[in-house]
Amino acid sequence: MTDFNRDALGPPAGLVATMRLLLVEDNARLAALVSDGLEQQGFAIDRYESIDGAEHAQTIAQYDLLLVDLGLPDGDGLDLIRAMRRRGNSTPILVLTARGGLDDRVAGLDAGADDYLVKPFQIPELAARCRALLRRPGNALDSVLTAGNIVLVTAERTIRVNGQAIEATPREVALLELLLRRSGHVVAKPALENALYSMEAEVTPNALEAIVSRLRKRLAAAASNVQIKTVHGVGYALFAPPAADE
Amino acid sequence: MNSAQPAAAGKPGPSLFRQIAVRLAILTLAFAVLSIAIVVITYSRQPESLAQELLSLEASRIAADPASAEVHAGPPGSSHWQVRYVDQAFAYDAGHDLSPDRAALIDWTQSERTAGGYRITGVRTIEQDGRQRWLFLQFEGDGLRPYLPVILNEILQHAVLPLVPLSVLMLVFNILAVRRFLNPLRRAEREVDQLDPENMAARLSEPFAPREVHTLVCAFNRALGRLEDAVATLRTFTANAAHELRTPLAIMQLGIDRLPESRDRDELSRDNLYMTRLVGQMLDLAQADALMIDDAHRIDLSETARAVVTALAPMAFEQDRELRFEQVGEAFALGHGEAIYRVFRNLVDNALVHTTGANPIEIVAGPGPQFHVRDHGPGIPEAEREHIFERFWRGDRRSSNGAGLGLGIAKRIVEAHNGTIAVEDAPGGGTLFRVRLQPPA
Fold first, then answer.
1. Looking at the domain assignment, is residue B56 inside a domain?
2. Fold of the domain spanning A144-245
3. Is residue B111 included in any domain, yes or no?
4. Which chain B residue lies closest to A25 (C-alpha atoms)?
5. Domain for residue B23, yes or no?
6. pLDDT tens for residues B157-215?
7. Which residue spans of chain A are classified as CATH 1.10.10.10?
8. Contact residues on chain B for A120, CB-CB shorter than 8 A
């Protein structure tokens, strides 16, 4: 029954296949909380508490993502990352650490980590980072993106608000897709413009503003509860109302 | 250290020069007394030589001033006094038979006892008007009184005259020597005044001589070394403690998130976030204190500003606030990217915490190596401006949910970059924090 319940809960939209994660963390309590939390988000987690354990685990299973603590009983997590990268292992690695010093983040990324998250953190933030890493080239893209009452099916290039399909140009769909993928975060203007330029050659300097404006009107007309905010001088961000409101 | 000690609280005691001068004076005085005592004792044991000296003294007085010889009354205390030139008698005392035997004209002195005391007779050779003459002197007296001029003269000759120049010489030497010997101490004093907790590596320069000052300075330097260790230990401890707190905080955060939804859970979660922020700031502060910008790079302040706005905009929107970024010209500076990021973040955080309302917080990079963060809040009263960069200082303790470390961290980091941070009145109201950094080489 437990299994059934978990399946009924299901992974959040966007995660097609269950991703297998390896968590290397020597604090048993924290490891249990993190893996419980991520399992609820639809990930499968294996826990090890040392570098040796992590190396051993990787010889018997293939992982989609590693979560690595830096202070481990048998060495520094950065050494594990360096060793893996030297062997040509390109599995995405997210560093989970208490080290938040000025040079620590750069040191972590230099060692070959893909992202760096300083403790303490919340599960939604961690899950979002994991998903972002799993979406990198080579990994399957989410096919259904949701936020608030909006659903975007990437393969069909359709937008539904409250279940009702709304009309939108390909560029508007592309823009909304980019914002949905980083929902709750600011997406920089150049990133959005690049995506739009690649679709059509004729893009005027104000094209992005115009597209955003039209998309806002369409969403408002369809009574969508998400907001596209302008962050002046930086970019745009899509915000959905908190889940509790639904 | 102990303010109860009078030496530390009151005015300082006498100078070394004065102490030495006083002791030298006492020594000189003692020496003079000793000399006088020796003179007195010596002559009281040898009355003959005292008699000789008495006649010689009187003879030299007459030689120096022949006119006075005729009215010469003799030394005080003499009951009988006679003096004349042997080769030309100009004074005669009938009571005495004197034989002008020129063959006997050598200096001689004779002392004999009389009924009333003693009589001293003698001849002295004197030089007068370039001519050698002989002076016959006879003297009768009693007690020590007649000898006083001789004794005083002897004291002057043997005690006072040598001691006065000696004392003056010693005084001058004292001034020069003390000044010279204390020079290393004075330099050490200047160096001690320049010691600063921000630069614990500084040491006093150790003088070669004098050895006493050398050992003192060396001992002081050793003490500085121990202090430096203690400060370093304190800083590392702060950093380590903050660091070690992060894992339990993470456990607590995740544990709270698993609780069933309730107002209590939300409050716990907020409290935990506050503590997380505080721990993060303590760590930042410890690092900012130890920050040495020796690997500064050319950084694009507009890029850093965009990253901060990107990171903080969601939080601002959650509070119905807005962040705006504007770039004015190129904004390249020399600095540590992550450190400058934290300066930005602390300033924006500060603006978010201390102001309310719909007006946006404006972040402007450039022109040149500077940026500013401006809010539309009530501004900072003039009286509070000097305090806002102090650690753990909060303008309004009730409303603020920060620890009052953010601006202190920002200031420390900016200073490590040889830059400046200042608070200004923004035109049209509000507060403007302006940071100026060094341009890239």
1. yes
2. Arc Repressor Mutant, subunit A (1.10.10)
3. yes
4. B247
5. no
6. 877 788 888 888 888 888 888 888 888 888 888 988 888 777 777 888 888 877 888 88
7. 144-245
8. 246, 249-254, 272, 276
B358 inside domain:
yes
Assess whether B307 and B397 both reside in one domain: yes
Domain boundary (B264, B290, B316) is at B290
In angstroms, the separation between the Cα of residue A47 and the nearest Cα of chain B is 16
Residue range B316-335, pLDDT digits in tens: 888 888 899 999 989 999 98
Tens-binned pLDDT, residue by residue, of chain B (441 aa): 444 444 445 677 888 788 888 888 888 888 888 888 887 888 778 777 878 888 888 888 877 777 665 546 666 777 778 887 776 544 444 445 454 444 446 788 888 888 778 888 888 888 777 777 788 888 888 777 777 878 888 888 877 788 888 888 888 888 888 888 888 888 888 988 888 777 777 888 888 877 888 888 899 999 999 988 888 888 778 777 777 888 899 999 999 988 998 999 989 988 888 888 888 888 888 777 777 666 678 999 999 999 999 989 988 888 888 899 999 989 999 988 888 999 999 999 888 888 887 788 999 998 999 999 998 888 888 878 878 887 766 665 444 555 678 888 899 899 888 899 999 888 888 889 999 999 987
B contacts of A234 (beta carbons < 8 Å) = 306, 309-310, 313, 323, 325
* B109, two tokens: 């002195």
**CA A216 centroid distance within chain:** 24
Q: How far is A179 from chain B (nearest CA, A)?
A: 13
User: Which CA distances in Å does B20 have to A1, B14, B15, B23, B178?
Assistant: 99, 10, 9, 5, 9
CA distances for A106 relative to A112, A196, B120, B333, B440, angstroms = 10, 31, 112, 19, 21
Question: How close does chain A come to B441, measured CA to CA in Å?
Answer: 22
Question: Taking the model in full, what pTM does it have?
Answer: 0.63
How many contacts, defined by CB atoms under 8 Å, are there between A and B?
102
Q: What is the CATH number of domain A2-134?
A: 3.40.50.2300
B303 & B421 share domain: yes
User: So what's the pLDDT on residue A13?
Assistant: 44
B331 shares a domain with B265: no
Q: Does B257 touch chain A (CB under 8 A)?
A: yes
Whether residue B242 sits in one domain with residue B300: no
Q: Which structural domain range is residue B323 located in? A: 293-436
* Pair B137, B206 in one domain: no
Question: Is A101 close to B322, i.e. CB distance below 8 A?
Answer: no
CA distance, residue B205 to nearest chain A CA (Å): 34
DSSP codes, B19-78: HHHHHHHHHHHHHHHHHHHHHHHHHHH-HHHHHHHHHHHHHHHHHH-GGGGTT---STTE
- How buried is residue B11: exposed, middle or buried, by Cβ count under 10 Å (0-12/13-18/19+)? exposed
- Radius of gyration for the alpha carbons in chain B, expressed in angstroms and rounded: 47
Tokens, residue A44:
């499968």
- Close Cβ partners of B344 (under 8 Å, ≥ 6 residues apart): B304, B305, B308, B363, B371, B373
A192 φψ region: left (φ > 0), alpha (ψ -120 to 50), beta (else): alpha
Residue B210 and residue B286 in one domain: yes
Are A232 and B326 in contact (CB < 8 Å)?
Answer: yes
Inter-chain residue contact B327 with A27, CB threshold 8 Å: no
pLDDT mean over A148-171? 87
CATH 3.40.50.2300, chain A: domain bounds: 2-134
B290, B319, B341: which is the final residue of a domain? B290
